[in-house]
Amino acid sequence: MFGPTxxxxxxxxxxxxAAVLVLLGLLLWWLxxxxxxxxxxxxxxxxxxxxxxxxxxxxxxxQDLARDLPDVSIQLRTSEGSQQNIARxxxxxADFTIATADAVAKYQKDGKPGADRLRGCARLYDDYVQxxxxxxxxxxxxxxxxxxxxxxxxxGSGVRLIADRLLSAADLDPRKDIVPFSVGIDTMPGLLERxxxxxxxxxxxxxxxAVQDLSERFDIxxxxxxxxxxxxxxxxxxxxxxxxxxxxxxADAYGKAQNGTAVPTVAVANLLVTTDRMSxxxxxxxxRTVIDSRDRIGDExxxxxxxxxxxxxYTDPLPLHEGAKRYYRSEKP
Length: 333
Hints:
Largest sheet: 10 strands, mixed
Oligomer: single chain
């Protein structure tokens, strides 16, 4: 027979064992991702022309996504630029992309298919408009492009959108007052070098590799885009035009081409774009990698250095995707 003291000791032993089991359960819950799973599947990221910043950025980002989202297969798909990128994502032909805010606003204003499903993940870096001419050219302003052979970007590019607007702001008809060449940054530098173009527009991060490479083998100059052009863009009343701002290309962006002189220009923000079809978990992970990879990618693609957690949340004109919201909430101090 067991006495009262033995029964008390046995009860305490049971209580102690139960407490240990509870502690072990809490420890396992803390260490193991019970009830959660890493995002999986395959996504397509629409980038840009082969020698542009979008494509280089996408190539480097894919490496970090492979590390952070090991169960997600990332496919890169080149494009003509912002306008084609937005159309692809809206149509479900791509899952993520980069596009300029003005191109997004135009797509919305035009009521294109799927515009209401577009969502923002992050504001990335600004594109700077670069009007490039041979160093000895007599072209000193946008107005001097009248009658000239001008590279204006491909039909589906953000370059084409802003080039047409800047020409109109300078009282030039983009279809009649110049000889337009609908080619991209992979082609325009060579045409200028061979004197088959008098000038070309490019809108991209600083420095853009194709422009930098051209400046090292051929004497070029950047034409100033005065602030009055921005004033005229804003006065046009177009909803998309409010996303343009006056900016300055730093004196050291393209060494030889600038001779130590800063050049006034026009800038517009780039956005990371998806749709409401994309899962919250995958979008959260994608957005986190974009922000976390800033410094590594920025070592090779300098515009990426400007991605900033404090401003990334401002994706106007697009509402934030729910997954992106979850990421930004998790990063609050």
